[in-house]
Amino acid sequence: MRLSRKIFLLSAVACGMAVAQAPAFARHAHDGGGDPADARARQVLASMSLEDKMSLLFSVDGGGFNGSVAPPGGLGSAAYLRAPKGSGLPDLQISDAGLGVRNPAHIRKDGAAVSLPSGLSTASTWDMDMARQAGVMIGREAWQSGFNILLGGGADLTRDPRGGRNFEYAGEDPLQTGRMVGSTIAGVQSQHVISTLKHYAMNDLETSRMTMSADIDPVAMRESDLLGFEIALETGHPGSVMCSYNRVNDLYACENPYLLTTTLKQDWHYPGFVMSDWGATHSSARAALAGLDQESAGDHADARPYFRALLEADVKAGRVPQARINDMAERIVRSLFAVGLVDHQPQRSALDVVTDTLVAQKDEEEGAVLLRNQGHILPLSPTARIAVIGGHADVGVISGGGSSQVDPIGGEVVKGPGKKEWPGDPVYFPSSPLKAMKAEAPQARITYDSGTNIASAVRAAHAADVVVVYATQFTFEGMDAPSMHLDGNADALITAVAAANPRTVVVMETGDPVLMPWNNSVAGVLEAWFPGSGGGPAIARLLFGKVAPSGHLTMTFPQAESQLAHPDIAGVTADNVFEMQFHTDQELVYDEGSDVGYRWFDRNHFKPLYPFGYGLTYTTFSTDGLKLAERHGQVTATFNVHNTGTQPGVDVPQVYVGLPDGGARRLAGWQRVSLAPGESRQVSVQLDPRLLAHFDGRHNRWSVPSGTFRVWLASCATDDSQQATMHLHGRTMAP
After folding, report:
1. Using CA atoms, how far apart are residues 230 and 735, in angstroms rounded to an integer?
2. Which region among 20-34, 53-67, 110-124, 252-266 has the lowest average model confidence (pLDDT)?
3. Which H or E run contains 231?
4. Fibronectin type III-like domain: from which residue to which, for each copy (predicted)?
5. Nearest to 471 by CA among 453, 451, 455
6. Among the residues of 127-224, which ranges form H helices?
7. Which helix (H) or strand (E) holds 334?
8. Whether residue 1 has pLDDT greater than 50
9. N or C: which end of the chain has fewer CB within 10 A?
């Protein structure tokens, strides 16, 4: 059913009026008076003039984009803000992004860094400790490079598997996204670097991203996309939140009081500051009153520098109370103290490339997902004749494009056609799977064929005991994928090679789920995502069994695009990326509501190709003994996990719930369990109470309904093998 935009507008306008009339801008909703960061921020601000406070609200372009140069004092980065003289505060050196330290347009001579694998790989580990380690690594590299704000991590849900920036995010489930992204944020900030939760909110597509209105019932949004952000905030406590380009229910996200003030600052008691995305500010008074605290790179990215002279004029005219300026400045300064960056300012030093690359490698080893392993073709024999085909596997691994792109240490190893337009040619990190495979199995006879000539590849396949085909899909910020197919001739290549040698393994380096018309013709499939700086050795170790696969999908792989909630994206085939971002298709009604990804498939009884939560390994597991208990409103699922195979391995049992009034099942908890062969362990999982509830929009709170709940102990979202029920009495919770 198509939702009423009139309702959206009335709700948004009402929220806007409430914010504009609020009398106590300087009082944080969280304020208890005992937080040292609050006290120190107020002490600093007490000696500042209004001019000094307003200088904190506007950063300038950091250099590199479209040929711009670094400003005086800036290092060459996404943005720079000079601290008020005499304040004792550090200048803000702001760097992209969530996978590592970016060097825009190679502006810094020493700007190469170690890159994590994609956010999807980190999320697919289902390992919060691994996510935190990943955050520690990139936070440390940012600090060693002189930066104190890192623009990551991304928590937008995957509402469309063709999204150009899906690889930066964590997947389609709010609980899994919130916990994994929040853990990475916590790791970054442990290094005295502010992490930025983005892109808030509903920035789920790149098509028309600068103008599109994502229209969704506010209740459904609270139960899906916003719940992911809420859990990420609770888990990671980011110093900053970045509002997104798009409109939400007709209001730009950076002018949306329901998002920025009502939900973020009041309901969630967020004490930090909101910065705009680059080019996402459209006003001064309207944005400030809605809850935007800092305009990003406003001298370059926005139509006007709104938070300079225009905002000053608004304050003088009384359109923006000075109390609001005080609140904006206090939130920014508070975050500087909260993560310790004032007392532990960056010390530029050489990166520990070896150690950091091993972190990226471990992340990829845990996050790659084994989708198919017919006849136990994997792990590979160390003495086999192996034909490696395609994907530039002889030199490196592909990465996603855009503002998360990291300059590879060792340089780019694939020379592209020299595309000038954003985002340029695909970048391959110099981490060769072929070389790593030869190092892991020196007695194997391993050959390489580029795959550009299918006849040549078929001959190589005929001569081998087993074939490993590397296939890529380049996705990037600014454009959604025109289709869900692999790049170039990959589908035809895999089909031909598998016909020549059915003992074929496909290693996919992709930013999204893809269609796999050849799936039943191959023996093995390993989804490696964008593998990062340690990708080559990680893939080789997985293929030869030096480490067992343990990743599980965080996105549903459909059988066809017709199964999607929105089978086509209008305008996605535009040739010019920048024109596509301003495409006239400016409204998208998310009438699937909170049923994102696997919930949509469950609601419509669609069978996916590979379901959310799915992943194989080199041993087998079983679970039993599911018991449910409720105490003081907290539901706990207890069960046993057994390694029934002959190899050590990791299982990720998942707990899903179904509410008494029906609807799609929801992930409510999980546990990652490492077991030796024959070992068993009892596991307890506490279920997030919000996944047992509906959001009550009228009373602005969560409400658990009375009745019988169904609980599944599952290996993936479609596993119905173990179920239990329990009766809960209705209760309400604070938002």
Report:
1. 10
2. 20-34
3. helix 225-236
4. 651-717
5. 451
6. 128-144, 174-189, 218-222
7. helix 322-338
8. no
9. N
Distance CA 325, CA 57 (A): 9
Per residue in 568-597, pLDDT (tens digit) is 887 776 567 767 787 766 889 999 999 999
- Average pLDDT estimate for 191-220: 96
pLDDT for the residue 585: 66
* Cβ-defined contacts of 600-605 (< 8 Å, 24+): 600/564, 600/565, 600/664, 601/556, 601/558, 601/563, 601/717, 601/718, 602/664, 602/665, 602/717, 602/718, 603/663, 603/664, 604/563
Q: Give pLDDT, residue 35.
A: 85
Rounded CA gap, 633 and 728, in Å? 9
Query: Is residue 542's pLDDT more than 70?
Result: yes
What are phi and psi for residue 703, nearest 5 degrees? -135, 120
Residue 715 near residue 653, CB atoms below 8 Å? yes
In the chain, % of residues over pLDDT 90: 90
Rounded CA-CA distance 275/97 in Å is: 14
Hey, what long-range contacts does 569-576 have (CB within 8 A, 24 or more apart)? 569/160, 569/162, 569/205, 569/207, 569/480, 570/207, 571/207, 571/208, 572/162, 572/207, 572/479, 572/480, 572/481, 572/482, 573/482, 574/479, 576/421
Q: Specify whether the CB–CB gap between 654 and 714 falls below 8 A.
A: yes
Helix-strand-coil percent breakdown of the chain, rounded to 5? 30, 20, 50
Amino acid, single-letter form, for residue 479: M
**For the whole model, what pTM was predicted?**
0.95
Tokens 């471990």 belong to residue = 362
Q: Report d(CA 172, CA 174) in Å as an integer.
A: 7
Residue with tokens 């994206």: 569
Residue 239 has pLDDT above 70, yes or no: yes
Phi-psi region of 75 (alpha: psi -120 to 50; beta: other; left: phi over 0): alpha
What is the C-alpha to C-alpha distance for residues 147 and 138, in angstroms, rounded to an integer?
A: 11
Count of alpha carbons within 13 angstroms of residue 365, beta-carbon side? 21
Cβ atoms of 305 and 298 closer than 8 Å: yes
* Cα–Cα distance measured from residue 124 to residue 214, given in angstroms and rounded to the nearest whole number: 27
Query: Rounded CA gap, 398 and 391, in Å?
Result: 8
Could you read off the pLDDT of 437-469 as tens digits, one per residue? Answer: 999 999 999 999 999 999 999 999 999 999 999
Q: What amino acid is encoded at 59 in this protein?
A: S
Report whether 142 contacts 78 (CB < 8 A): no
Question: Counting Cβ atoms within 10 Å, is residue 63 exposed (0-12), middle (13-18) or buried (19+)?
Answer: buried
Copy the structure tokens of residue 79: 């943005």
Note whether 650 and 616 are within 8 A (CB). no
What b-and-e string marks burial along 25-34, b requiring 16 or more CB atoms within 10 Å of the CB?
A: bbebeeeeee
For helices 174-189 and 225-236, the axis angle rounded to 10 degrees is: 30
Burial of 310 (0-12, 13-18, 19+ CB in 10 A): middle
Helix (H, G, I), strand (E, B) or coil at 452: coil
d(C-alpha 144, C-alpha 667), whole Å: 38
Could you give the CA distance from residue 554 to residue 664 in angstroms, rounded to a whole number? Answer: 17
d(CA 464, CA 446): 9
Residue 621 contacts residue 238 (beta carbons within 8 Å): no
Whole-angstrom CA distances from 318 to 234, 256, 259, 682 are 35, 21, 24, 63
Q: What angle do CA 28, 81, 339 make, to 5 degrees?
A: 50
